[in-house]
Amino acid sequence: MSEDRVKIAGQADEESVVAALTIAFAGDPMTRWSWETPEAYLSGFPRFARAFGGGAISLGTAHYTEGFSGAALWYPPGEGPDEEALVGVIEGTTSEARRPIVYAIIKDMGNFHPEEPHWYLPLIGVDPRFQGKGVGSLLMKHALEVCDREGVAAYLESSNPKNISFYERHGFFALGTIQHGDAPVMVPMLRRPR
């Protein structure tokens, strides 16, 4: 795959980007813990993706690869998720028993965000049919070139332990862990510019 296959997602691409991420996160430990049944996941995750990372589309910082085989939603320094919309999604789609844990996790996520200006990657995913074929690396390299050119750090939370080595290969390192109740462990990670 070549660099020119990374495209900027516009409003007309939103449904395809959200669908790509929904497929990519179907086996993710944290998202599947958050929405316990397939029906709850398929109903809740697309709304969550829009609230958590969808603002990147209007900012011009959402990327996808050919055929929507993968997508990455980045927030530039000073930007972030729509917190009011995120609370609405959590209230409307997660079980009442899990909500306090979800809120505790989100609070810890906020505590780990660097105070220095940074690019934030709330969501990156690859369609399982294309995993292991360089799609994730292509998306990651595309955005990290911007971080390096600007001399700005990049930050993310890994919701799947299987992805930590991928992020480490791209220069990220773990800042700690986030874990509450019976939820899976989440790992906040930072990358300094090169």
Instruction: Give the overall shape, derived from the CA principal axes.
Output: globular
Strands of the widest sheet, in order across it, are: 1-2-3-4-5-7-6
Helicity range? 40-55%
Average pLDDT, all residues = 96
Secondary structure tally, helices: 8
State the secondary-structure class.
Answer: alpha+beta
Radius of gyration: 16 Å
User: Main sheet?
Assistant: 7 strands, mixed
Proportion of residues in β-strands: 15-25%
N to C succession of SSEs: EHHHHEEHHEHEHEE
Q: Count of DSSP E strands?
A: 7
| First-last Cα distance | 23 Å
The low-confidence runs, each spanning 5 or more residues with pLDDT under 50, are none
Protein model, in words:
Helix 1 packs across helix 3. The two termini are 23 Å apart. The chain is 44% helix and 18% strand. With 194 residues, it is an alpha+beta fold. The chain has a 7-stranded mixed β-sheet with strand order 1-2-3-4-5-7-6. The protein has 8 helices and 7 strands; from the N terminus they run βααααββααβαβαββ.
What's the quick description here?
The chain has 194 residues and is of the alpha+beta class. It is built from 8 helices and 7 strands. The radius of gyration is 16 Å and the shape is globular.
